[in-house]
């Protein structure tokens, strides 16, 4: 579904991504692991066109490198950034409505507001309160649900468990498995090894702007040298 080849990205003169290759298949959860500062978030931004990509970004066979961010979103890729960009002065319900694509009506895709409220009762209870009063976990769920309202085929999620309590981390993991179970592919940028290893079918490890490992969670578990060199503090 998503096929990225020889992807480079720069911030000024800094060469951040240095020939990144990875794929995400239909209905698959693929995790991208690595320490802070190695280029994981930049990878998502380059795919979405928020950082100018050099290389190939193919989605369902179509080349997206060089397209504008809104064109990439309309092609079917959703993006949940690390900073949980909600609109704090709007209600939960209004935030969800903003996830719809131009011309799309609620319920036209796989995900409707009612489906969101059924899956996440906390959001139903908070439907008509300002999003600014939501807890950290509720804000994360709202951000993911708002992205799903646009009915993407694939979503990239950057550090969804950052700063959340262990119980909420588990709920987020269950949420991602449910989303994949409904046919949405997930590219998960995560620092918590436990959650990524539990829910992913494949994992990549990034170091110094390049992929240094690809395999199953079981392969990574067996690769003590990779974990020590590229993941453990």
Query: Helical proportion?
Result: 25-40%
Architecture (CATH level 2) name: 3-Layer(aba) Sandwich
Spatial strand order of the main sheet: 6-7-8-3-9-10
What is the CATH class designation?
Answer: Alpha Beta
Distance between the termini: 33 Å
Counting DSSP H or I runs of 4 or more residues, the number of helices is 10
How many domains?
Answer: 1
- State the total count of DSSP E strands: 10
Q: Spell the H/E element sequence.
A: EEEHEEHEHHHHEHEHEEHH
- Say what the CATH topology is: Rossmann fold
Mean of pLDDT: 94
Question: Which runs of at least 5 residues are low in confidence (pLDDT < 50)?
Answer: none
How would you describe this protein?
With 233 residues, the chain is of the alpha/beta class. The protein has a single domain (2-230), classed as 3-Layer(aba) Sandwich (Rossmann fold), CATH 3.40.50. The chain is built from ten helices and ten strands. The chain has helices at 40-47, 69-75, 92-97, 113-119, 121-125, 136-148, 166-181, 193-199, 217-222, 224-230; strands at 2-11, 14-24, 29-33, 54-59, 62-63, 77-80, 154-158, 185-189, 202-207, 210-215.
Summarize the structure.
This protein is 35% helix and 26% strand. With 233 residues, the chain is of the alpha/beta class.
Keywords:
35% helix; Rossmann fold; 233 residues; 26% strand
């Amino acid at each position: 579904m998503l096929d990225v080849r020889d992807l480079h990205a720069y911030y000024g003169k800094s060469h951040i991504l240095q020939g990144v290759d990875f794929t995400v298949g239909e209905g698959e959860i693929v995790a991208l692991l690595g320490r802070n500062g190695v280029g994981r978030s930049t990878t998502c931004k380059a795919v979405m066109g928020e950082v100018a990509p050099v290389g190939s970004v193919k989605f369902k066979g179509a080349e997206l490198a060089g397209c504008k961010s809104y064109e990439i979103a309309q092609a079917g890729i959703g993006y949940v950034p690390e900073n949980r960009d909600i609109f704090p002065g709007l209600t939960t319900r209004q935030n969800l409505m903003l996830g719809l694509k131009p011309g799309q009506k609620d319920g036209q895709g796989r995900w409707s507001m009612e489906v969101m409220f059924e899956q996440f009762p906390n959001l139903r209870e908070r439907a008509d309160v300002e999003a600014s009063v939501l807890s950290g976990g509720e804000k994360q769920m709202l951000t993911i649900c708002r992205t799903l309202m646009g009915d993407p085929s694939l979503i990239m999620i950057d550090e969804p468990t950052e700063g959340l309590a262990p119980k909420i981390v588990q709920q987020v993991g269950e949420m991602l498995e449910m989303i994949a179970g409904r046919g949405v592919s997930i590219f998960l940028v995560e620092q918590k090894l436990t959650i990524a290893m539990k829910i992913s079918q494949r994992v990549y490890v990034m170091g110094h702007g390049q992929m240094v490992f690809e395999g199953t969670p079981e392969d990574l578990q067996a690769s003590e040298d990779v974990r020590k060199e590229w993941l453990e503090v």
